Amino acid sequence: MIQLYLSLLLAGVACFLLHFGAQYRIASLLRSRHPNEWKIIAESNGVPTNALRTWMRLQLALRSPVLPALEDTAVTRWRQAWRYSLWAAWLCWFGALAVQYSAR
Q: Do the beta carbons of residue 42 and residue 49 sit within 8 Å?
């Protein structure tokens, strides 16, 4: 029972790390392959934005249908990893909580 609990916790951490790593990978792919689209995210009125504002604008781009419209398979694949890894992480963590509750 303890092995299942620890493996669910570890899987949850791994999925959370994948979620944030996918954001970084999408940003680097956009910078290298689609610089005009990245410029829309990273600049506001021709002035570079700060890191927090760039991250918020990237979140909006990830949720919008714009990235699949680029027809870049790598960006689409990382976007799907970004999208579903967070759900998987929460499922693992809630599963670990259920295991902990049932062990009482």
A: yes
